[in-house]
Design goal:
- There is one protein chain.
- By secondary structure, this protein is an alpha+beta fold.
- The protein folds into two domains: 99 residues, no CATH class; 152 residues, no CATH class.
- Strand 9 and strand 10 form a beta hairpin.
- It is elongated, with a radius of gyration of 27 Å.
């Protein structure tokens, strides 16, 4: 009974993960989560104390009495999502897995570096009544280059072009162009280290605590034509059919453990009723 009760709680956590994936199926650049299970603490009991020939027995001797199964890891899956053309100049789709757009976000008033695969950017004033703008995500996080510097856009900018060498150029309304800088993407060598921050953002943990050198994990590359496509967005990598199949599997397992608890409760009631 205890084993089933513990496992039901873990299955509920997995169903919550699946529900979260399904709720974000239309979110640009969303990376799906996937749970993996492992046995909780168990004890191996030798029920056959006197060795006896057991013929063609295929199972190992003894039985394992444990406390059920638990979610051992919730991993991000960085499969490439479908590419949807938008023909919008400030929409950029990442074409390689393990790459992200570097942005700056504020957490409790502190500016921190973060990463996202959502390539839909917009113009935001650098200051009230300013004639200078910067590129931001839909949540207001500032797009930066590899050095953490934002792109400064003149107020007369009317259109944008990403060249094959990664240079981002703005067309000005009165004529001419302005070079904004090189669009760079962050290449994460070990993306499973990333921690979700919410709002489709990720951040690296304190690498010093886990004895990892930042140069071995994080690098920046100029966004060439093979890495980034302008005028398109990467959709989420959630497959509704797969998520529904996983949800049905979790629900059936949950129901099996619920019936197990009910049957054990009935058996205990019968034992207690014996005179």
């Amino acid at each position: 009974m205890l084993s089933s009760a513990v496992t039901m709680g873990q299955l509920q956590q997995s169903m919550d993960t699946i529900s979260h994936n399904m709720a974000n199926i239309n979110r640009t650049g969303y990376q799906r989560r996937e749970d993996s299970f492992s046995d909780l603490l168990f004890q191996h009991m030798e029920h056959q104390r006197v060795p006896q020939p057991e013929g063609n027995r295929l199972t190992p001797d003894g039985i394992r009495v444990g406390n059920g199964a638990g979610v051992s890891q919730t991993a991000l899956r960085y499969d490439q999502g479908a590419i949807q053309e938008t023909e919008r100049a400030l929409d950029f789709a990442l074409m390689e897995t393990g790459t992200f757009f570097p942005v700056q976000t504020e957490v409790d008033g502190v500016t921190e570096q973060a990463f996202t695969r959502d390539g839909a950017f917009y113009l935001s004033e650098t200051a009230p009544d300013s004639d200078l703008w910067q590129l931001v995500t839909r949540e207001g996080d500032v797009l930066t280059n590899g050095d953490g510097e934002p792109f400064v856009v003149p107020g007369q900018a009317s259109d944008f072009t990403l060249h094959a060498d990664g240079t981002l150029v703005a067309d000005l309304m009165e004529g001419g162009t302005a070079t904004l800088g090189e669009l760079e993407v962050a290449a994460i060598e070990r993306p499973q280290l990333l921690e979700a921050m919410g709002a489709n953002l990720f951040q690296l943990p304190d690498l010093a605590e886990i004895d990892v050198d930042e140069a071995d994990v994080l690098g920046f590359d100029v966004a060439g034509a093979t890495q980034v496509t302008q005028g398109a967005l990467e959709q989420s990598n959630v497959d509704m059919a797969t998520e529904m199949a996983n949800l049905m599997e979790m629900q059936r397992s949950y129901g099996m453990h619920a019936r197990n608890i009910t049957q054990q409760d009935e058996m205990m009631g019968l034992v207690n009723a014996l005179r």
